[in-house]
Amino acid sequence: MNKVFLIGNLVRDPEMRSTQSGVSVCNFTIAVNRRFRNAQTGQQETDFLNVIAWRQLAELCGKYLAKGRKVAVMGSIQTRQYAVKDGSKRTAWDIVADEVEFLAPQNQQSSTQSAPGAYTTAASKDSGTAYAPQPHNDFGGFTQVDDEELPF
């Protein structure tokens, strides 16, 4: 099973592009802190991971993400090889996003555009739409009940 769950902050603004056939692609890098500090230095170590989002998920990421924004990324690891100028081959690991959840509140990110909803937006490559939580006074079709009315 190839599945990865990451939470980190965008290192720079996402880069949007399209393939020759018109498919949207969004690339961004997230900084993810390791769980443990370096034993010799005591410093927190950070990994910088490249993320690729496709189609509508890419469009949502390109529209609502910006440098410094905290995100949760669910997806898979994909490897690719390429040659550098001296002819040697290199291997790179990318995270192909299946879902991206925007974790930081919109009002704390001055450089981002307003997304639907006040706090978080989640997107999935399968859903094709963004999810915005309902305001606190909307109970999503459920009726609010006082504790005294509960049968247990």
Report the strand count. Answer: 8
Uncertain regions: pLDDT < 50 for 5+ in a row? 109-121, 129-136
Structural class by SSE content: mainly beta
Query: Roughly how many Å is the radius of gyration?
Result: 19 Å
| Main sheet overview | 5 strands, mixed, barrel
Characterization of this structure:
The protein is 7% helix and 46% strand. It has one helix at residues 55-64; strands at residues 4-10, 15-18, 24-37, 44-54, 70-83, 89-102, 121-124, 130-131. A five-stranded mixed β-barrel has the order 1-3-4-6-5. Strand 5 (70-83) and strand 6 form a beta hairpin. The longest helix is centred in the middle third of the chain and has 10 residues, at 55-64. The radius of gyration is 19 Å and the shape is extended. The termini are far apart.
Give short descriptive properties of this protein.
extended, 8 strands, five-stranded mixed beta barrel, 152 residues, mainly beta, 46% strand, 1 helix
